[in-house]
Design brief:
Layout (H helix, E strand, L loop, with lengths): L7 H5 L6 H31 L4 E4 L13 E6 L10 E6 L3 E8 L6 H10 L12 E3 L8 E2 H4 L3 H11 L5 E8 H6 L2 H22 L3
Antiparallel strand pairs: 1-2, 2-3, 3-4, 4-7, 5-6, 5-7
Length: 208
């Protein structure tokens, strides 16, 4: 098994000007790590959930002008795609690494998913205080779960339920500096701990 060690070079990919140069660097520098993580954690989720999970490494194939600002590997129990389902992700922006579970606007049953979470909102009290919340997978901004638990959590879930473009992401952001300091073993342990904490949320989303 390859060792997954993040370095500044990985994050610097998203600071390269131009679509083709950035895509070339993304393909050669970052994507092999996502592919390795895809194999490792699809097996992990299959074992944990009892459903067969498949990895989906972002291809950014539709881009013709603007280079991607982030990239990721996603995990979902469907071989042909993940965007219509709640899914887990490991990914990078130039500022941080993210380990999350997400419901994005393409999910046709997101209103029902949001209602399940609203009805069981106490589940979020069990998550670590350094977790984050977000309502937009296209933005690198986030809200601290510790400070947003009282009000913003419910607001995001209501928006997910009622607004067509509503989204919901929860998980962990690790700064570029901190991620670069992690050994391979430390990173994999932290990733597994993060997913362990998120699995009860995921199970509630899908109605388990």
């Amino acid at each position: 098994m390859n060792k997954i060690k993040w370095t500044n070079k990985d994050f610097e990919v998203f600071e390269i000007d131009g679509l083709e140069p950035r895509m070339e660097a993304l393909t050669t520098v970052v994507r092999p790590k996502f592919q390795e993580l895809g194999e490792m954690f699809s097996s992990y989720f299959s074992a944990k959930t009892g459903d067969e999970f498949f990895p989906h490494v972002a291809k950014h194939a539709r881009r013709t002008i603007n280079p991607p600002k982030d990239s990721w590997v996603a995990f979902a129990p469907y071989k042909r795609g993940y965007k219509s389902l709640p899914h887990f992700q490991i990914g990078l922006w130039n500022t941080h690494l993210f380990i999350i579970v997400a419901i994005i606007y393409e999910a046709p049953q997101k209103s029902e998913m949001a209602t399940r979470l609203l009805n069981n909102i106490e589940l979020f009290d069990k998550l670590p205080n350094d977790f984050i919340l977000s309502g937009d997978h296209m933005s690198q901004d986030s809200i601290s779960l510790k400070t947003g638990r009282e009000k913003q959590l419910e607001e995001l879930l209501i928006r997910l339920r009622d607004v067509k473009k509503g989204e919901f992401l929860v998980g962990r952001h690790i700064s570029r500096e901190d991620a670069s300091k992690l050994s391979s073993d430390e990173f994999l342990q932290l990733t597994e701990e993060t997913f362990e904490a998120l699995l009860p949320i995921y199970n509630k989303i899908i109605g388990k």
